UniProtKB/TrEMBL annotation:
This is LuxR family transcriptional regulator. Residues 839-904 form the HTH luxR-type domain. It comes from Streptomyces chrestomyceticus JCM 4735. GO terms for cellular component: cytoplasm. SUPFAM superfamilies: C-terminal effector domain of the bipartite response regulators, P-loop containing nucleoside triphosphate hydrolases. Residues 953-962 have a biased composition (Basic and acidic residues). The keyword ATP-binding applies. One of its GO terms (molecular function) is ATP binding. Residues 480-503, 903-969 are annotated as: Disordered. Keywords: ATP-binding, Nucleotide-binding. PROSITE patterns: HTH_LUXR_2. GO terms for biological process: regulation of DNA-templated transcription.
Amino acid sequence: MPLTGREAELARLDGLIGRAGGGVPVIVAVRGERGVGKSALLEAVADRAADAGFRVGTAAGGPAVRDSLFAAARQALGRPDDGTDTLDGYVARGRDVMARTPLALCVDDLMDVDASSATWLVALASLDRPVPLLIVAAAGEDPGSGRTAGAAELLARAEHLELTGLPEAGIAEFAARHCGLTLDAAAAAVCHELTGGNPGLLLAHLAGRPGPAVTARELRGAAGPEALRCTRRWLDDLPRPALAMARAVAVLGDSAEVAHAAALAELPVPDALHAIDTLVARQVLANRVPPAFRHPLLGTAVLAGMPVGSRIAAHLKVARFLRDEQWGAERIAQQLAAAGPTGLDWAVEPLRAAARKLLHEGRAEEASRYLRCVLRDRLPADVRSAVRRELAEAETFVDPDLALSELDTLLRESEDPEVCAELALDVAGMLIDRARPADAASVLDETAERIGAGHPAAVRRLTLRKASVSLLDAAGPSAEARRLADAGPDGDADAPERAGGGRSRELANLRAAIAADRGTDREAALAPAREALSGAEGGDLGRLWQSCATLIRADELVEARAHCWRTGRLSRAMSGRRAGLAADIFRARICRVAGDLPGAVAILRPVVEEIGPGSAALPIVAGFAVAGLVEALAQLGDQDEAAALLAAHGVAGHGPDDDLHGRYEGPYLLAARAALWRLRGEPGRAAGDLLAAGRQLVRRGAVSPAVLPWRSRAALALAADGATDRAETLAREELEAARRWGTPRTIGVARHALAMTRSGERRLMLLTEAVRHLEASPARLELAVARADLGAALRAAGRTAEADRECAAALALAGECGATPLARRLRAAPEPVPAHDKPVRTHPLLTPQELKIAGLARSGHTNRQISQMLFLTMRTVEFHLSGVYRKLGITGRQGLAAAIPAEPSAEPPEDQARPAAQPADGRTRPTGPAPCSCSRTLPPGQPCADTLVRSSRWHDGPRSAELRPSPSR
């Protein structure tokens, strides 16, 4: 056995060789399981002892010499000079050798050494004076399993050296050195999992592999001939009951129950338990419950060594009693899949049920394997068609091209009109996912023509879906889509089917999307959006994508968050997670609208990583995820990561349209890239990208600023670039559109953009109105930017005290949002004067929000307590604390005491929970008597309970990245 990765053991043995050479007898028992390399270690010890000047004698036990007389002694030193086989003669022989030179005896298989030789070794080590003697003996893993009294006594007096399997890090080196194979990290991990790093099993498993490189998938396949030969040594001389139990455990797998194994082996339970003990003693089974092989490769080899007929019969027998005992579809399916095609009618449903469960858990490859097992049997035509459709769904993300081909073939073969309609909808959905709406429309058209007028309900479904598909067209919704959207309930061609639920919701979704794009009536878009989402299943990507977006555009964030939460819960584990991924994107968009940039990044990073660059399966979803992540990173100040992300997804070009023209997600990617240009101080390029995004949106009828406020963003960029006239025109257009839509957020953003094209008192007035509107919206980041610009305008007008108050509020909001560039800009301005009499702590490195959070943490408050006190999410608190540690050069809370002065009072007095002019959420609400339906006059800044209830949907819901779903609006 080649010796690799035993440096520590050899170093210890070198020390023992030196000690024995000094005249101190040393006995070492090398213990370990079969194949772990005990014999190889003994050979290495023999070589090292010889190099150290020892006379080396080697011997091995075994069945052939077990009953011989002094067989091992004779192997090691030869016969005594008088030629007699006596204990005294062999002891004298050893003494004579040690009188001239140190003696090293390396004995393999001590458990099988003959009794007389074991007695000789004990006697030699028990001489009445110190002798230069080293005895190294290989023993089994159990020191109490010696066959003779002499061997047991020798083990009792020995130092023990435990040999375990090679670590995972050493397996690649072992494979390269001894097998000439290259293993990557995944392949090495599989080898370690299957063999436990046992060198003998490793050699057997890697032997005969073709080519220099072996993959993890290849290593998980069937055991090779050499592995079968190697593992037979583990099973030699097993009693019949033990062999039957080993086969039963191999058939049942890791979840083997003792009762099931005993039934399969046809043994009474007491006999089965005794057989398990035998297998544990022989190191075949691990010493645990439920019974399992010590190394999975042993189980694979035992199974492969069974006659094929017996193996199939065993799998079917197990499947039957698992079915009868209702152990669950997945365990039954494992046995049926292992048995192969059986022609059993009852076997189809467990395999399909297991595939559905695996698909829901995201294990699409395993689901595909079970469905292919079903298709190997003879099936009725309708069942085969249904299974092929399920297989295509499972393979959507495993192999999207194959899945699309399977569905298309099935569509062309199907004769049933209803089945044809369902398949056409599935094919169209896959084509839409892959940004091929024109092909999707063609499939729907062809199928409708093939079905014909004899099936009007199916044709109407296809026509309605085709109208929805046109929403993704660069030219905008089709005439049919606009007709359906504009028709009232009485004029709806689909009116007789409205009770059908699904079609009614799809029509409502179409109307919501078109109304939101037009932006003329917020309520006209909200009503159908709510109808479309009512009772919708989690996996309905189309309705979620259009109608949930409408809720967010209308600033109904709590309601949108509830739908995202439900969809994510139902769809997150589905194959490909299409609807779940969309729900994540919308959750991030809610965070962005509410100004929680760290929350948006934390949600979108895993989405982008999961989909990956150049996704062939979900290019539209990937585009929206990248756009949202790039924009959030830019606003956080991470321009390097944002630029790298754009480059990785092929949208880092410098032309305003480059390769994004005609892509549904193109305008959003252009807007995200524009945010990066502005951060880099290139407003001209930013304006170019935003104007290109606007042209694409207008071309397809999306003119509402709630879809994308490209006019206001372009106006800000153009104003910064000196083109104020064009900027004012765009800002006025957006303000008119925002007034039609009617949300405070869109109006406030448009007023802010218009203000930046003016100067003097007109700018001050427009900025004041913008701040007033944004305070009534969930848009904390936009409010922070507007307040920063208002503060600058007030300072320019000489109104320093008012300017300082606005800048202080803007800086606090920027800190809450994580907007580092905005905070940096505000800190570069003249130091603001506090808006209240109580001194405000400052720190040269930290923002006010970071300082507030750090002070509470220094006082011993937990992250959860801080989040509750400041109305922040846990993720935002953790984000700010990480920034504090990085800026202060400390590793955690324990360093805060030395880095920041103590907070005089970590919490406000009970009779004044928060200052009136500066609430704890960082907003400066208007002072003066608070208007209220109860006609009471309250102190400035303290609204009554009715006012708080009316405003709670902004100041309690959207502030959090994880909004809790509410049962009602």
